[in-house]
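protein under study:
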Amino acid sequence: MITVRNLTKKYSPEQEVLSRLSFQIDEGDFIAVLGGSGSGKTTLLRCLSLREKWDEGQFIYDGKDITSASLTEKLRLRKEWAFLEEKPELNLRATALKNVLAGRFFQMPVWRALTGKAGTDDHVMGMDYLEKVGLIGKAHEKAEKLSGGEKQRVAFARALVQGAKMILADEPVSGLDPENGHSVMRDLKALNEKEKVTIVCTLHQVELAEKYATRIWGLAGGRLVIDIPARRLMQRERQLIFG
């Protein structure tokens, strides 16, 4: 699905955030990216989702080199690859359903997009995906009243309505208590297994990566130090990632 060769990202000549990363992401992968603060996890997701420009490297998607893709092509791909911030960007005054339907903006007729009135099919689709993430009962509740975990679920549902084939989630359990953290990870796992969505998410919590992912990457100092099938990490591997 995706092949990356020698991805390098610099914020200045002296500050190399990502250093010559090479890897492959296969359709259906659930990759947990572990690393401490400043390891480059968020920058990696932003580069993969085409929100950050690379300084060096080759990016191949479905056999096509998109390293120098046009802006139009990058915008098209960004619809297929949903990037979810650590804190979901929702319209807090809108309902959960309206936030989900925002993912259909570019598929709606212009007049519907401008008026914010969803068609019957879009409405049914939005409700369907809210049901998939366990929020059918919160569809008409404003986002400002939702918990942190529920807001994450709304973001997942919006990505699916958008037609995302891959979700890149930056610290999706940040700030959540352990119970809600596991709930969000179970949602991601269900989307991965039932909806066949490829998942790449950054985490601090090793145990969540071990429990829910299919692969574990470890980043340290902007370098990929671990790329293994998900399992219980050995102490030596934890040391490589977290020092």
In short: The longest helix spans residues 178-194.
